[in-house]
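Fold this sequence, please.
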Amino acid sequence: MASAAAAFLLIIAGAAWPSLIDAAPSPSSSSFVPPPPCAPPRSAVEFLRARCASTLYGVACYESLLPYACIFRTSHVKLARAAGDVNAAWISSISKRVKELVARGAAGGTAVAESAALRDCASTVSSAAGLAKQAAAELAKLDAAGGAVGSSNVRWAISNAQTWLSASMTNEATCADGVAATGAAASSPVAREVVMAVVRARELTSIALALVYGIPVPP
């Protein structure tokens, strides 16, 4: 769940995501590219709704993963892989954008402590992106193995993905909380955009983590 500081920033910003989030790629930019538009079978849609209901962000889960329904259908592994790839694509784009903003001094006019918090944020978000990519790669390997992998290997893959996604969430929270604690978001549009984007990233990471936990382990 997002911290109180980050949640407050989300509320005061209103429903529209700012420019930093608008600059992020669509889910189709991830390595798990959906097929051309198709009408997903009802079973896939119902499966997605049921699985998303197990997450903290059911609406965001459903909307971000529906384009992949023709791929995952009713597969827990393929659904978790889609979530992992969407998450990795998002946080990677945010990491790149935050680095660009910090490098250009886009947070000019903020206090020294606030600028330092943004620089620290760029570092922690970069680490989060790397961890998200590791989790996505692990889920891709599990998906590629299909039914040929034993239960112990499934457990190992799930454990690895859980560990990396959890660590990614920690880094995302560190970024958002660090910037919010300085009060920069109240005076700097850039700081506000950064926190908003990272809060969104944490939602997607939480969704991916919940869906990984839902992967059944064969006997």
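The two ends are 32 Å apart (CA to CA). Residues 42-214 form a domain with the Butyryl-CoA Dehydrogenase, subunit A; domain 3 fold (CATH 1.20.140.40).
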